[in-house]
Design a protein that fits this description.
about 70 residues, little secondary structure, single chain, three-stranded parallel beta sheet
């Protein structure tokens, strides 16, 4: 999943409950400021994510139930 370079917000539930089965790679842009509530909740294939330095808000339970998220 690649979030476009002009995007400033990943909204609530945007990638939540993504289907299981494969490892998911997420690339977030340097322009990102906000990760909404439950944005990646239950995305079991998500193992790692790099949050850009500009992000100043991570919503409630944004990464809850990401069972294999290491970093």
């Amino acid at each position: 999943i690649t979030v476009g370079e002009r995007v400033t917000k990943v909204g609530a539930y945007s990638f939540s409950m993504f289907p299981e089965g494969n490892t998911i790679t997420v690339t977030l842009p340097s322009t990102l400021i906000t990760i909404g509530n439950y944005a990646f909740m239950g995305t079991h294939g998500l193992h790692a994510i790099v949050i850009p330095d500009n992000v100043n808000y991570i919503g409630e339970a944004a990464f809850s139930d990401c069972l294999y998220l290491d970093t």
